[in-house]
Amino acid sequence: MPDITVKPVIKPELKVERPRLYKVILINDDYTPREFVTRVLKAEFRMTEDQAHAVMYTAHTRGLCVVAVFTKDIAETKATRATDAGRAKGYPLQFITEPEE
Ligand code: NFA
């Protein structure tokens, strides 16, 4: 009888995790014109007029609205740029980021 040794092949476990996603949230205020908020949403988040208006109006009536979800870097960059667009006009418009559950 031939002496056959079978070596177990151990496949290394590849743990690939999805990057944590961050919400960009639009906060309502009493001063920023609705039309300006809609324009910023269109420019920074590539929304149509209807999408931007819906997000603006939800924040206006409910206090805030989730605009979109991105990786951390992109969420922070977009929130900063959109907030800065308001600040440049003297508006208190605020976009914040928050990690998803
Ligand atoms: N509440 C603002 C107004 O009545 C509009 C607004 C909506 C501001 C959403 C900020 C966010 N002019």
TrEMBL record:
<comment type="function">
    <text>Involved in the modulation of the specificity of the ClpAP-mediated ATP-dependent protein degradation.</text>
</comment>
<keyword id="KW-0645">Protease</keyword>
<dbReference type="GO" id="GO:0008233">
    <property type="term" value="F:peptidase activity"/>
</dbReference>
<dbReference type="InterPro" id="IPR022935">
    <property type="entry name" value="ClpS"/>
</dbReference>
<comment type="similarity">
    <text>Belongs to the ClpS family.</text>
</comment>
<protein>
    <recommendedName>
        <fullName>ATP-dependent Clp protease adapter protein ClpS</fullName>
    </recommendedName>
</protein>
<dbReference type="InterPro" id="IPR014719">
    <property type="entry name" value="Ribosomal_bL12_C/ClpS-like"/>
</dbReference>
<dbReference type="GO" id="GO:0006508">
    <property type="term" value="P:proteolysis"/>
</dbReference>
<feature type="domain" description="Adaptor protein ClpS core">
    <location>
        <begin position="18"/>
        <end position="95"/>
    </location>
</feature>
<keyword id="KW-0378">Hydrolase</keyword>
<dbReference type="Pfam" id="PF02617">
    <property type="entry name" value="ClpS"/>
</dbReference>
<dbReference type="InterPro" id="IPR003769">
    <property type="entry name" value="ClpS_core"/>
</dbReference>
<comment type="subunit">
    <text>Binds to the N-terminal domain of the chaperone ClpA.</text>
</comment>
